[in-house]
């Protein structure tokens, strides 16, 4: 409703609040719309991995349009794959922080 301005003034901030509540209650439609919000950067920074995550959740519940949107984005990532990607991201961030620490130590030694 607020995301698309149906019957009310379009308000992405209000839409995000209501969508978060709806997905907490298991709304497939809410998951799908959150995917759109992240895919197109409506009220949030554009974030394709986040869009894929929400589309994936909706698709796993049978939302065919969400599956098609994921195909449009070029992939179909399941929740378990996203967890692996999250773990890899943490590893990369940890490794980068160690590199910064090491380079800081090298600079101080000069």
From TrEMBL:
SMART domains reported in the protein's UniProt record: SEL1 (SM00671)
Pfam families, per database record: Sel1
UniProt protein name: Sel1 repeat family protein
Record organism: Actinomortierella ambigua
């Amino acid at each position: 409703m607020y995301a698309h301005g149906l019957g009310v003034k379009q308000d992405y901030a209000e839409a995000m609040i209501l969508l978060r509540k709806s997905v907490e209650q298991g709304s497939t439609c809410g998951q799908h719309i959150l995917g759109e919000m992240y895919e197109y950067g409506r009220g949030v920074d554009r974030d394709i991995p986040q869009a894929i995550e929400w589309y994936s959740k909706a698709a796993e519940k049978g939302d065919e349009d969400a599956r098609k949107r994921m195909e449009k984005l070029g992939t179909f990532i399941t929740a378990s794959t996203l967890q692996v990607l999250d773990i890899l991201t943490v590893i990369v961030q940890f490794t980068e922080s160690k590199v910064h620490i090491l380079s800081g130590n090298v600079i101080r030694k000069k």
